[in-house]
Amino acid sequence: MCRVSWRVLHVSKPARALRVQPPPLMAFAVILLLLSVLPLCQPYTYKQDVFAINGLYMALGSPMLPNWITNGVDPCNESWQGVECVNSHITSITLSFANLGGQLSNTLANFTSLITLDLSNTNIGGTIPDGLPVTMQKLFLSGNQLSGSIPSTLSTLTQLTTVSLDNNHLVGEIPDVFAALTGVANLDFSSNNLTGPLPPSMGNLTALTSLHIQNNQISGILDVLQDLPLQDLNIENNLFSGPVPAKLLNLSNFKMDGNPFNTSIAIAPSAQPLAASAPLAPPSTGHVPSKEPAHSSNGTGGSNPAPPSGTNKVFIVKLVGYILIGVVSAVVVVLLAMYCL
User: Fold this and answer.
1) Any idea what the Cα angle at residue 49 is, between residues 44 and 54, rounded to 5°?
2) Region Disordered: which residues (predicted)?
3) Per-residue pLDDT at 183 exceeds 80
């Protein structure tokens, strides 16, 4: 704080009589000078943002970061590392790949204008707090030790465009929170322990172009995604089943290996043991097939028709004999008739 000291001069009566009043222009200039100095005596950063970032710093364990101090009063003017401000409001905190530790604080919701929070790959643990700034547009928390579930309060962050929560230890189902998040274009929940089906409200993500949910235990079908403007979809190594919508199969970058629907192929009849033991029918040659398999006389196979078997020869001989007997009997009958007449 600036202190302005005033010194009062005691002037004798004769001196008072000779005192000359300052001109009005000089007094006006002094007032302007005081007004220009007063803002420098006050913290520049908005008080509510100061409270929020001090709470975050303490929750992270007060790590060694350039210009960050415990119970700081002016992060914007003091140039805290990774902190960006606009008109005395903190709008961005970017500390990716910093060795932080600790966890996130519940004071995050107190930021008044925070747009970007990037704490990816900083080794922070704990859970994702329910309270997050409603002004948030980009949230990067990937590559940490976060546990618990994805908070349902994401539904209030209607200005979100990018959410990256991949490579953590998140569990449970993806919450049904996307009904009003129509501006989300990039979503990454990959490499966690998420389960259950995709929520119905995902069908409202009309700006979604990239979705990565690989390496989880998500199940169910993919129908909720088929009408989205996706360009990049990765669902590998999950428990998805059922047919894959044709629209998804036409995506230029679609990865789906490691799901049950990739191996649920019906077994062909030829692969069954019964079919292997059944003899194959010979090709049709226009002849009446015999009851016994045909073989060539020299023991080698060929494409020529097999000669008649012994059973067929006996049948032909008997047929000829019956015809001869019939003819002889008819001749005898005719001769007897002529003789008797």
Assistant:
1) 105
2) 278-307
3) yes
Structure tokens at 113: 């204008």
Residue 102: both structure tokens together = 């600790």
pLDDT (0 to 100) of residue 281 = 45
218: left (phi over 0), alpha (psi -120 to 50) or beta: beta
Is the separation of the CB atoms in 82 and 110 below 8 Å?
Answer: no
- Find, among 215, 277, 207, the residue nearest to 240 by Cα: 215
Sequential DSSP letters for 22-87: PPHHHHHHHHHHHHHHGGGGS--S-HHHHHHHHHHHHHTT----TT--TT-S-TTTTT-TTEEEET
| Under 8 Å between Cβ of 43 and 50 | yes
| CA angle centred on 276, ends 275 and 280, rounded to 5° | 80
306: nearest Cα among 290, 291, 292, 295: 295
Q: How far is it, in rounded angstroms, from Cα 88 to Cα 95?
A: 20
Q: How far apart are CA 117 and CA 92, in angstroms?
A: 6
Kindly indicate whether the domain formed by 47-261 is annotated with CATH number 3.80.10.10: yes
